[in-house]
Design goal:
- The protein has 162 residues and is mostly helical.
- A two-stranded antiparallel ribbon has the order 1-2.
- Helix 2 crosses helix 5 and helix 3 crosses helix 4.
- It is globular and about 65 Å long.
- The termini are far apart.
- The model has no long low-confidence stretch (mean pLDDT 88).
Amino acid sequence: MQTREPRSTETDARQTGERIERELMILTRQREMTAPHRLAGAEGLDRSAYVLLSRIEVQGPMSVTDLVEAFGLAPSTLTRQTAALLKDGLVERTLDPDGGIARKFRMTRKGREMLRANREVVVDGITQVVAGWTPERLDGFIADLRQFNQDIEQITGRPWPR
């Protein structure tokens, strides 16, 4: 009988990281399955609009500086993205409700409606994928995914409001 040498914990961790990376890469590619712009019946938001509107939805009006802190992106990137949202009528500039100097972006009715319609398409696609999963498997998957995201948020210092 042949014995194997014990693998180092570092090697195991690296291989695990590589396996997770591959699955996350595939997952982001699979997002196309539920992307509203690929499906009939919904005017699709691009990924950045979907994420920005989702953040503004949960956090309330945000300035470019707030968005830079939340996402860790360059101000120029967020300025371009918010300009596109403004142009499409998905957000509007408003005075800071807390009395600050900076203007903030808040969702318009059109922005809320488009986000809701797009989210419905995404949720419908996800629901199809997990339709045969047991409640226990779903609960475990959601708990693990949430923990994974919270660990990333802890490392980056950019939590997502829940």
